Structures are given as structure tokens and as C-alpha cells.
């Protein structure tokens, strides 16, 4: 099986991290872009080196999927470590293992610490839990964590365990390159009050969410009739009884709706019937967030509001796959009323930061029609950058007046319009530490004031950007500082030679700006 370009790139990047000594590395691929295929190929590489590999997951469906995809992609068969099944004594080099089984001391002690050379964690955002940590800490192995789209909060948590991010393929890039469906979002003008719902483990209490939703269920169905009656829909709800009640209401209004939950004896049959078109709505109480695919789904309704980005991404991921005749995925959002604005909305799937997400959410709420997320993000990003530039203008003016030979990092970032640098937050342990002595020296040498760079991750990113700019022939920090002190704007976007020529002209003119040159309008030669 030939890998797509980004899949091949990620496969190589993982090996690079392990070669560098980063034993615990992370791969981020959105739902529907073939993460199981990628880690199957990584497993194949390891087996060819004579290694033993463990694939660790928390649900039986994920283990079965991994075993099936591994055999399809590579021809490799697996042994299983789950409940009564054991891999000990098997001649297979790959084991799919249940974390619930392996976490037990009696089971774990049967394996030497060096029994596995590599461990793959499917749905890696779960791996911070005690059960996973007990298994991972037992073995002395390279570890690859595979997850969909974690946000900064998730990354910070994952950064306490993983040492590096080997590769990330973003949802917007996957859509742009034609591997996932475009996404449109529509805010339904229904105000749903969650202010009385309590919190537990950093999210809303599911037991109280059901009661809070009950008064609105009929109105939600009416809105679905209005905007999505011709769609194939998956609905996520907080409780089984809420899911069952919602299914009844949908059927009363003319939908062909079915419901599945953990106790459903006919679950496989219902999923098959939904896939084939017998039903057009499938309701569930958070059962289908992992290990289930139905590419023909073209509408997702999240009635299980959450603050956790990875959970929200998993729900939406049920509808992002491509399918013949499917033009886009429609997400129905609501005017959720909460005490604090921490709720996940469609905007959070692709926004680079919370400022952009909030601006996008406002645009979508005010539109009243489905809007393409990528287009909304572009305008929101422009608005946020303009607002931020305006807010920072006074601060930058003050910096420019200071008699420093070195450039403040903030001035440099705003001049080169580097959103990724100005909004950078460290994730991994090493990134959070202070810059090294060598980093401080190099930043000073390159013209950046190191006092304002408070962590090693930011220092690394700045140095990488400076090196890239040097090789691309763009202006240096010192050129930026000199010219922006004299009123020239966004000098960071100019070629090095343009900056040099202008500084030479200013020097030849007694260090005054030459006649006919307007700093506010001048954009380099």
C-alpha cells in the first residue's frame, strides 16, 4: 500500500525523533487521514529490524481495528493480550493489548521490562491516566503516541509524558489538500442555558447536562427539520435516557432515527442499517466517539457540550471523511449560555488560538446561514491580527524609543507577522525550561534581546526562524530595529538587500531619511 505524501513524511519524522534519542514521541493526524495506516507502516519498519511491538488501546474495537488494518496494510498478523487471551508463547512479533488487562500487576509481571522494543498508543490523549502510566513505566521501549487534534491544553498534558512532537498534519491542511470534507457551521438561534450545570474533572457533569437539555429537545428537533431534513446525521447526547427520548421525538417529526448505547444487543445491526440508509439519524450517548466510521455522514449535532477539545474533535471527526456525492459536513451549533466562555464550538476545530476562535464564533452566530469554516477563519484571523497590532502599537512605540542595540522579540515577531511565534505556548517538558546559555549567546549575536525570551521552546523557534530568514535573504533584526525606529513599517517582510540599500542611503544622507521617501508608505525596493 502506497502512503500519501504526508503519511510518508510522518513515518520518516517518527524515526528521526527516535534516532535523536526522543524515546517518547507524538504523531497528530486528524480523524480520517489514516493514522492507523501510518502506525501500521511504522510497526512494519520495526518488525523488519527484529523488534517486538505492542499496540496499546483502551477499547476492544480499537484493538480489533488496529489488528485488521495492520494485516491489510502490511500482511502482519497479531497476538492479543486481553482478558483470557495471552500473547505469551506466540511467535508473532506484534501484540495488540488492552490497557485494562495489562495494567494488572499479575499480568504485567509476566513480561520483562525489555520484552517490547516499541509501544504504539492509539488515541494517545488517554495515556496520562494511571492505568496507561503503569503499563508504560513497566517497559523500557520507544513509545509512539497517536492522536487526532489536541488543543494547547491537551498538548500541555501530553507534554508531561512525551518528549517531542514528531509530526502534525492539521485539519485545515487535510481539507485544503482534498483528503477530508470541507466543513460548514450553522448556529441555530436557540439559547440553551447551562449556567446551572456543575463541573467535574474539568468538564460539565453529564448527569446534570441531561436535565439541562430536556426543556429544549423538542425545539431542537424542529430546527433540525428546518435545516437538516435531507442530511445523514449523527447526534451526540450526554445520557442514554436523553438519547432515547430525543430519538422518539425525531421519529415523531418524520425522521428515521435509531439509537445505540453500550447495552444495545443489536448495535452492530443498527450501525449496519444506518450505513445502508435505513435510518437517516443515529443518536448515541458518547458511544461512537472512537472506533466507528461512516463516511456518508454529512451532518453532526453535538448536544453533549464540552470544554475538552480532543473530545469535541472526536465527535466532529465522525463526519469529516470523504464520500461520493458529499459536498461538505454541516455542523449544527447552538447559543449555549454558560458562566464562562470555555465551551468548544466549530471554530475551535481549525482556529490557531482562542482569540481567532471567539471572533469566528461571533461571525457564525450572526450569519444565520451555514458558513465555510476556512473562509471564516481567514477573515477572523485578519481582524484579530489588525486588532492586536493596534493594541500593541503603543507598546512597540515605547520599545522603539528605548536606546537598545538589540531588538525586542515582540517587535521582531510583529514586524515579520509571525503569529506562530507571538502566540507560542510551550508544550513539552524541555520547552518549558529556561533558554540554554548557548541559545542566549546566539540570540544576542543575531540581534535579539534574550531577556524577553523566557523558555527554551521559544528560543528554539526564534533561532530556527532567524536561520530560515537568513537563508531566504530577508531583513535582519538589527535592520528591522534601525528602520522601524524611523517610522518604516513591517520591515521584517522586506528582502535583506532592500533594507541594506535603504540604510546605506540614509547613512549617505547624514543619517537622515532621504527626500521623497515616506516611511509610512515605503515597502522596500
What is the number of helical segments per DSSP (H or I, 4+ residues)? 22
Rg over CA atoms: 27 Å
Give the beta-strand count: 16
User: What shape does the CA trace take?
Assistant: globular
> Major sheet: size, sense and barrel closure?
7 strands, parallel
Low-confidence parts lasting 5 or more residues at pLDDT below 50? Answer: none
How far is the N terminus from the C terminus? 50 Å
Strand order of the largest sheet: 3-4-2-5-6-1-7
Could you say which structural class the secondary elements and strand pairing correspond to?
Answer: alpha/beta
Beta-sheet strand percentage? 5-15%
Roughly what percent helix?
40-55%
The overall pLDDT average reads 89
Tell me what you see in this structure.
- By secondary structure, the protein is α/β, with parallel strands linked by helices.
- 44% of the residues lie in helices and 15% in strands.
- The protein is built from 22 helices and 16 strands.
- It has helices at residues 5-19, 35-48, 60-74, 99-102, 105-108, 130-138, 152-158, 171-176, 206-213, 217-228, 240-252, 267-276, 309-316, 354-367, 373-401, 409-415, 419-422, 429-432, 437-446, 456-472, 477-485, 496-508; strands at residues 24-28, 53-57, 78-81, 94-98, 118-122, 142-147, 164-168, 183-193, 199-200, 203-204, 233-236, 257-260, 281-284, 299-302, 329-337, 371-372.
- The strands form 3 sheets. The chain has a 7-stranded parallel sheet with strand order 3-4-2-5-6-1-7.
- α13 (309-316) links the parallel β14 and β15.
- α1 (5-19) crosses α2 and α14 (354-367) packs across α15.
Amino acid at each position: 500500500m502506497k502512503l500519501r505524501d504526508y503519511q510518508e513524511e510522518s513515518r520518516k519524522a517518527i524515526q528521526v525523533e527516535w534516532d535523536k534519542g526522543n524515546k517518547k514521541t507524538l504523531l497528530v493526524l486528524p480523524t480520517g487521514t489514516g493514522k492507523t495506516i501510518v502506525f501500521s507502516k511504522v510497526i512494519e519498519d520495526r518488525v523488519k529490524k527484529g523488534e517486538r511491538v505492542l499496540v496499546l488501546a483502551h477499547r476492544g474495537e480499537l484493538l480489533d481495528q488496529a489488528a485488521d488494518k495492520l494485516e491489510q496494510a502490511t500482511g502482519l498478523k497479531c497476538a492479543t493480550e486481553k482478558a483470557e487471551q495471552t500473547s505469551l508463547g506466540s511467535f508473532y512479533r506484534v501484540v495488540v493489548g488492552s490497557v485494562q488487562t495489562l495494567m494488572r500487576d499479575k499480568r504485567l509481571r509476566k513480561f520483562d521490562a525489555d520484552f517490547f522494543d516499541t509501544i504504539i498508543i492509539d488515541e494517545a490523549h488517554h495515556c496520562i491516566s494511571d492505568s496507561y502510566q503503569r503499563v508504560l513505566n513497566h517497559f523500557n521501549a520507544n513509545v509512539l503516541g497517536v492522536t487526532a487534534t489536541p488543543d494547547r491544553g491537551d498538548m500541555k498534558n501530553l507534554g508531561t509524558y512525551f518528549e517531542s512532537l514528531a509530526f502534525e498534519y492539521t485539519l485545515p491542511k487535510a481539507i485544503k489538500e482534498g483528503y477530508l470534507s470541507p466543513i460548514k457551521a450553522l448556529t441555530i438561534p436557540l439559547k440553551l442555558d447551562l449556567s446551572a450545570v456543575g463541573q467535574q474533572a474539568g468538564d460539565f457533569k453529564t448527569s446534570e447536562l441531561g436535565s439541562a437539555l430536556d426543556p429544549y429537545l423538542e425545539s431542537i428537533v424542529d430546527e433540525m427539520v428546518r435545516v437538516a431534513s435531507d442530511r445523514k446525521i449523527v447526534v451526540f447526547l450526554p445520557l442514554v435516557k436523553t438519547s432515547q427520548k430525543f430519538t422518539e421525538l425525531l421519529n415523531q417529526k418524520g425522521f428515521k432515527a435509531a439509537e445505540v448505547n453500550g447495552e444495545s444487543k443489536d448495535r452492530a445491526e443498527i450501525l449496519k442499517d444506518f450505513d445502508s440508509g435505513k435510518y437517516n439519524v443515529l443518536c448515541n450517548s458518547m458511544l461512537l466517539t472512537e472506533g466507528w466510521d461512516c463516511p456518508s455522514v454529512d451532518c453532526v449535532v453535538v448536544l453533549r457540550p464540552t470544554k475538552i477539545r480532543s473530545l469535541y474533535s472526536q465527535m466532529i471527526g465522525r463526519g469529516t471523511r470523504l464520500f461520493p456525492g458529499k459536498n461538505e459536513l454541516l455542523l449544527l451549533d447552538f447559543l449555549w449560555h454558560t458562566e464562562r466562555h470555555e465551551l468548544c464550538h466549530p471554530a475551535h476545530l481549525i482556529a490557531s488560538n482562542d482569540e481567532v476562535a471567539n471572533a469566528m464564533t461571533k461571525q457564525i452566530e450572526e450569519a444565520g446561514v451555514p458558513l465555510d469554516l476556512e473562509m471564516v477563519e481567514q477573515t477572523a484571523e485578519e481582524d484579530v491580527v489588525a486588532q492586536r497590532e493596534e493594541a500593541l502599537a503603543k507598546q512597540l512605540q515605547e520599545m522603539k524609543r528605548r536606546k537598545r542595540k538589540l531588538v525586542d522579540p515582540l517587535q521582531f515577531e510583529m514586524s515579520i507577522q509571525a503569529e506562530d511565534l507571538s502566540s507560542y505556548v510551550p508544550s513539552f517538558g524541555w520547552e518549558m525550561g529556561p533558554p540554554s546559555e548557548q541559545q542566549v549567546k546566539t540570540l544576542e549575536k543575531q540581534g535579539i534581546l534574550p531577556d524577553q525570551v523566557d523558555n527554551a521552546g521559544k528560543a528554539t523557534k526564534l533561532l530556527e526562524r532567524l536561520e530560515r530568514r537568513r537563508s531566504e535573504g530577508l531583513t535582519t533584526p538589527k535592520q528591522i530595529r534601525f528602520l522601524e525606529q524611523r517610522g518604516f513599517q513591517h520591515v521584517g517582510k522586506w528582502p535583506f538587500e532592500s533594507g541594506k540599500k535603504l540604510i546605506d542611503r540614509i547613512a549617505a544622507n547624514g543619517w537622515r531619511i532621504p527626500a521623497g521617501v515616506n516611511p509610512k508608505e515605503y515597502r522596500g525596493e
